[in-house]
Specification:
Blueprint: E1 2-4, E2 7-11, E3 18-23, E4 27-33, E5 37-41, E6 48-53, E7 56-61, H1 74-77, E8 79-85, E9 89-97, E10 101-105, E11 108-116, E12 120-128, E13 131-135, E14 139-146, E15 150-154, E16 158-163
Parallel strand pairs: 3-7, 3-9, 4-8, 4-10, 9-11, 10-12, 11-12, 11-13, 12-14, 13-15, 14-16
Antiparallel strand pairs: 1-2, 2-5, 5-8, 6-7
């Protein structure tokens, strides 16, 4: 990784099969690019761990997670930009966001775990053959396709799925409310 005027950048090897992101109070972005990469802003040294091991790229935000000590501008100051090659197919993706935001595009995977606490996740061009989606008090919006077995659990928040070919989906054990 290199630190250029307060922005850390990392280039990663292309032999990545699994992708895991765990972040608390930050703004995270997943974007298309020509290669894998990570840029961060507003973090101190050691507050982001990015490693590739056995084909798994893991990015963890280990900055102070004590909500009582997080300043009101922390979310706007901490940012991570994750770049993946357009059309890249993962075996597995695990995206876990606490009180922050995640905006992304272009995830294609065989299986996925997508969870949010009190934050917000917005994904477009998101395709998974098996998914587990969990929302606490936050919001999850997914545009794309969820195929195979998909489990969605939502507490006090909201999950909105805008799926291609909705006629191919069957909903069981769901409670819905009309707007």
């Amino acid at each position: 990784c290199a630190d250029v005027t307060g922005v850390q950048t990392c280039a990663l090897p292309i032999s990545i099969r699994e992708f895991t992101v765990s972040a608390g109070a930050c703004a995270a972005v997943i974007q298309y690019g020509s290669d894998f990469g990570l840029e961060t802003e507003g973090y101190q040294d050691g507050e982001i761990i990015s490693e590739v091991s056995d084909g798994t790229w893991t990015v963890r935000d280990i900055a102070d997670k004590n909500i009582l000590r997080i300043g009101r501008n922390t979310l706007s100051k901490r940012k991570m930009i994750l770049t993946i090659p357009k059309g890249y197919h993962f075996d597995s993706v695990n995206l876990n966001i606490g009180a922050g935001t995640l905006t992304g595009a272009g995830i294609i995977t065989e299986s996925c775990v997508l969870s949010v606490g009190a934050g917000q996740v917005t994904m477009k061009d998101f395709f998974s053959n098996g998914s587990k989606i969990t929302c606490g008090m936050g919001e999850i919006v997914v545009r794309g396709g969820l195929y195979g077995k998909c489990a969605v659990d939502c507490g006090m928040g909201a999950v909105r799925l805008y799926l291609r070919e909705p006629e191919h989906y069957e909903i069981g054990r769901a409670s819905c409310r009309e707007r």
